[in-house]
Amino acid sequence: MNRPLSVRRAGLAIVALVLSGMAAACSSSPGTPASGSSSGPGSTPAVTGTVTVFAASSLKETFTSIAKRFEAAHPGTTVVLSFAASSALATQITSGAPADVFASASAKDMATLTSAGAATAPTTFATNSLTVVVPSANPAQIASLADLARAGVKVAQCQPAVPCGVLAAKVLATAGLTVTPATLEPDVKSVLTKVRLGEVDAGLVYVTDAVAAAGSVTAVPMPAGVNATTAYPIAALSHAANPAGARAFVDAVVSAEGLAVLKAAGFGAP
Amino acid sequence: MARATARDRRRLPAALAVPAVAGAAFLVLPLIGLLARAPWTDLGSLLRSPVVADALRLSLFCATLATGLSALLGIPLAWVLARSTSRFVALLRALVTVPLVLPPVVGGVALLLTLGRTGVVGQYLDRWFGISLPFTTAGVVVAEAFVAMPFLVVTVEGAFRSADRGLEEAAATLGASRLFALRHVTLPLIVPSLLAGAVLSWARALGEFGATITFAGNFPGRTQTMPIAVYLAMESDPGAAIALALVLLVVSVAVLAALRDRWLPRGGAV
Predict the structure, then answer these.
(1) Which CATH number does the domain housing residue A136 bear?
(2) Which residue in A103, A237, B229, B249 has the fewest CB atoms around it within 10 Å?
(3) Looking at this predicted complex, what is its ipTM?
(4) Which domain holds residue B214?
(5) pLDDT mean over A114-141
(6) If you average pLDDT over residues B117-133, what whole number do you get?
């Protein structure tokens, strides 16, 4: 009789554990402990509550910093950031993901949303271009973009559907190089990680990623005339649960302070 | 499950019937949703595209090799776990079943840090033998075997435990070595469990995503398995993603159906 009881008790304990875990996950998803105060259905014009921002992977450092400043400037707000490939985020938003703001690393992925009516009047707030990064030890002794086409050199780049992959294909075509990558990663930060770990000899990432990871990777200068740029548009989303917060966050990004953060990280002016 | 309720002639209490129906709907509805949104008219051309053919071929090939690897290493391991009297065996059992509950992407990170080119073990593989597993088809097999093997080990260990030890001992008294008794007495006894374990690991390997994309990356024809192709296609071409998902669904159902009679009676006890 003892055994089934203890089994049942263990079962209950597991259920309790799972439920409490779920509760914790749910309550922590809006961000910091002070969360929970979701904004009303757009009735109050004051900026409050949670602002959910979907942003391109390459904006990770800058948007994290801008979000912190935003929360300090608007007490009672919480910014929830979700970083992924712009194309992945655009698909999530058109499938109904609850976002207030979308910041894309390409005009194309923003156009997906504007043509679907999910966003209107995007503002371009930054530009970015590509660079080659190599592990600090530079095992394959990469000195130029052309070295990526050498046999036996392991290259990581973004998969062709995401903005950094589009840019990589464009740059390599302009340079007249045929590179067979070792891997096509789902977003630019995954490329950077593979370089940082030394698992590949070189990666094609944004200039800003090379700046952000300056201690662990080395940037190799691009030859003149082959680089391409991508523009970063941002927009408050039509179905934002927190429209006032969404507009305020967009304003914060395009403010002088926001643009200064982006410039310091190596982004180009719009 | 459906068969059991049909045979039950007593009336079903509502407290069970309602959640049971909800549970069944919860599991079946998404599959219906997938079928409902399938691009039936373009299906033929989508499935004939080289991306799909490559990914399917690679998935079947790697899942089968991973199952073979799991059997090769997992059956002896299961035997040791079942027969050893060492007090460390419980600890070993706990350790080798960790990948069963570990999030696959964590497994991928662990594999990369261990078997990667600069990993704890991988750096010697690279330096001494010139073997580098990440971003190769062999890396896909390794990642899949890592997450799939525990399913086989757990299933087969259970079978070894419940197999009649008397027969093994009888063989020993007749002069058979332990290895001979295992091959000619015990293994034939547990064939249904071996099959069950193999099917479980094959299915797990076929569906493997997180460890594979983290450890083996993504390149069409080399490391892009079906689940990775589905995930990436979802960003750019949802129609193709649905077509790929349908293929995976059909393959999974076909395997279940083919092995149902052998698998379900024993598998239910695992």
Answers:
(1) 3.40.190.10
(2) B249
(3) 0.77
(4) 57-223
(5) 94
(6) 90
